[in-house]
Amino acid sequence: MLGEGAAIVFVPGDRVLDGRPWTPGxxxxxxxxxxxxxxxxxxxxxxx
Length: 48
Description:
mainly alpha
């Protein structure tokens, strides 16, 4: 057992960029994904 599961946190999309400490480049990737049409479609589908 590596113990990595203790660090897994599921965060709603609207709270992902609220100041959490991310690794270098992660904020850029997350921001691009959350602004993408793909994420928009997934969010709409998940809300159904």
